[in-house]
Design goal:
Blueprint (H helix, E strand, L loop, with lengths): L2 H12 L3 H22 L7 H12 L4 H11 L9 E9 L3 E9 L2 H14 L3 E2 L9 E3 L1 E6 L4 H11 L3 E4 L3 E6 L4 H10 L4 E5 L2 E3 L3 E3 L2 H15 L4 E6 L1 E3 L1 H8 L1
Parallel strand pairs: 10-12
Antiparallel strand pairs: 1-2, 1-3, 2-11, 4-9, 5-7, 5-8, 6-7
Helix pairs in contact: 2-3, 2-4, 6-7, 8-9
């Protein structure tokens, strides 16, 4: 399983406090606002906005909040000016990091990200140093014990590329543009969707074998995600389920 999928699974199990959910909604609103400003407020005519809105709905953001973000992006409300930047870095052990941000102050955010990495044992990397390892994919995580044949049939019929057993969860992989339509199809078929996203995924996985190293990695991921300007953080770590569970406990 990709680092992103394992991280999504562990966050789901830990649960989300109200404060964390509020911060997530603020980040999703910023994505919607920027997408609407760049390509217009028509969801059907703006694929980037459509993906941002689908992601927000999958996180249970209200329609009113989504509409307000779109209006801000199209100039109907107070809006900031944000720049889309991707930082590259390393976590301890040579684990690669891609950090997507939307910021109204490049200098502040760059300093903040560098400071976080330095304090948690990581480092910044030059542009392109790790980005070449990643490609965007649609990833849908299915919860619980399900019949493999039924899930495979439903997923492939909906347009997915692959289904894999990841222990307590199942991972459905697809083209990013089809992610949320496939999610809806799987839910309609009776499967419980833990998460649906379009992350940057790497096939060049770096094994993390000890609980202590896994804890260090989780601390750096959490510290980066806690920054208000950070939209997503992707990584290429590979941690065995028992090591991940021990580190998260």
């Amino acid at each position: 399983m990709s680092g992103h999928s394992k991280w999504a699974t562990i966050k789901h199990k830990k649960g989300a406090a109200d404060a964390k959910r509020g911060k997530l909604f603020a980040k999703l609103a910023r994505q919607i606002e920027v997408s609407a400003r760049a390509g217009g407020g028509d969801v059907d005519a703006n694929p980037t906005l459509r993906t941002a809105v689908q992601k927000a709905k999958a996180s249970q953001m209200t329609n009113d909040a989504i509409d307000r973000a779109i209006k801000r992006g199209t100039g109907e409300g107070d809006a900031g000016t944000y720049e889309d930047i991707t930082y590259e870095g390393y976590a301890p052990g040579g684990v690669a990091l891609l950090i997507d941000v939307l910021t109204d102050n490049r200098n502040r955010t760059s300093a903040d990200i560098r400071n976080i990495l330095t304090k948690t044992g990581g480092s910044m990397a030059e542009p392109g140093a790790v980005g070449w390892q990643f490609n965007r994919r649609g990833i849908i995580l299915i919860e619980g014990r399900v019949d493999e044949d039924e899930l495979m049939l439903a997923a492939l019929d909906a347009g997915a590329d692959d289904v894999s057993n990841e222990g307590e969860t199942w991972q459905v992989t697809c083209e990013p543009t089809n992610t949320f339509e496939i999610k809806e199809a799987l839910e309609a078929a009776g499967f419980t969707v833990m998460s649906a996203d379009t992350p940057m995924v790497s096939d060049n996985l770096v094994p993390v074998t000890t609980v202590e190293d896994a804890k260090k990695l989780m601390r750096i991921m959490e510290a980066i995600e806690d920054n208000d300007d950070v939209q997503d953080v992707y990584s290429n770590f590979d941690i065995a389920d028992d090591v991940m569970e021990a580190a998260a406990s």
